[in-house]
Amino acid sequence: MNKDLILSFYRELQSVYDDGLKLSTGKSFNLSFAKHTFKAHYLDSKTDEFYSPALSHLMLPSSTNHDLDVYVMEGKTTGLNLPAPCWDWNKVHPHGEIYRDEELILTFESWCGVLRMYNRIEQKAYIWIRSISDLPQWMRSFPLRSIVDWYFEPTGIQPVHSGGIALGQNGVMLTGKGGSGKSSTCLSCLNHSELKYLGDDFMLVDCESGKDAYSLYNVAKVEFDNLSRFKFLEGYKKDFKVDDEKYQIFINQIMPDKLTNEFNIDAIFLPKITGSKSGRLVKTDSSNALMALAPSTISLLKGNRERTFSKVSSLVKKTPIYFLELSTEFERNPEIIYKYLES
User: Is 217 left (phi over 0), alpha (psi -120 to 50) or beta?
Assistant: First the structure.
């Protein structure tokens, strides 16, 4: 596609947002992502309410210098529509990618009415949402995920599909396919007196060093039928959000003292349901970690697949890997993690 046409669309899009800023009823927040600061401008209250809770633990003072501006707007509330498209809809990638080079990325997901555009040179990103009420509720659990992925793409830092649990300055990543027990294990660690929670779905990792992990979202998720397993959470149920099949628990609202925003990676654990009562750690190799971490990260992000795979591959080669054979006695699993980190 002709880049000049994309640049022309970008300038027209900026003009729409300039008009939106004049009418803005929203707020702006500085957010820390792996020690880089994004300034998120929510141009209306609906985008603020939808996007802010999952990121509230990353907020910085408004006076902090920032590296990237992100503008988020709902068309329905503001009455501001997108410029006329400069692309052929019949040639749009199934994932919604319209254009990509080292400077510009443009996507439009027609199924939910969300456009995203990023200019790496100007360090500006724009998100236009047709209607917040049309978005599935599970999308509130990972705001700005694509923008974060695009921003860090040229660096060694990578969003990865993993949970993180810490003891002091050190922690472990937990990753695995759906149903492996990753999320429930992370959630159970909230009830441990010493362990801290970095996330249960996505986190940022410095794949070059293989050492630094950073929080992305303070959201935990639990299936409706499984909440009874987490009796320590039942008193907070009135504060939960819901999507089609899970409760969304914003940890910063109910247990802010259980959160940590970063840790040094000691190991990657691959949870595995075996029916064992005692539970244990079993050393394994990087190939198992790569198979657990790379496919889900790549499919969920839909970014530069080659770069993502390369970074994840580099990470697992630098890090000890263990199968975490989960105990059928739920409360034992956080203790296995604790003992490893304490040793």
Answer: beta
